Amino acid sequence: xxxxxxxxxxxxxxxxxxxxxxxxxxxxxxxxxxxxxxxxxxxxxxxxxxxxxxxxxxxxxxxxxxxxxxxxxxxxxxxxxxxxxxxxxxxxxxxxxxxxxxxxxxxxxxxxxxxxxxxxxxxxxxxxxxxxxxxxxxxxxxxxxxxxxxxxxxxxxxxxxxxxxxxxxxxxxxxxxxxxxxxxxxxxxxxxxxxxxxxxxxxxxxxx
Length: 208
Known about the structure:
Elements: E1 2-6, E2 12-18, H1 21-24, H2 30-44, H3 103-119, E3 123-126, H4 136-145, E4 153-157, H5 162-168, E5 174-178, H6 184-189, E6 192-196, H7 197-207
Parallel strand pairs: 1-3, 3-6, 4-5, 4-6
Antiparallel strand pairs: 1-2
Helix pairs in contact: 2-3, 4-5
């Protein structure tokens, strides 16, 4: 399929971008998307939660009262979980939430997410651009021209560009990534996705 290329002023140019149907126009696989997003979110979890159990509580190991004759239930030491201040029973421990996901599933998920954006008409091809220096004001003006200042947007560039990255990092609703950094979560989290002309070929090469 073909999409008209727009410039940083938000206007259509005479150029057309050819998109590979095997990457941008497949039948979306929602389960692959679910797995890839779950994998992404799981890897972001630190898993450093920890509750104090019996062995972590400071206190005497002396038996509080004798086993029989008191008329009350049997109890152990003061660190028993049933007492206030005692250790927690089966509390959370540090763990790694990450899990393995096959590369083919990841590629399928990203192609499915891009196909969803094409169907929703939420994907556009942006003319390659450069900034003279890291200026947030200039980048914000570009977003205003593209009419995405007040909504979440994702801009995919061919290669890492420090100037563009620095210009965009203070804008909370906009994320700039290179073609190699593109992930399913970022695609779905954005209301509008912009692929630079140079990134189209790279994305197709990575996902093709």
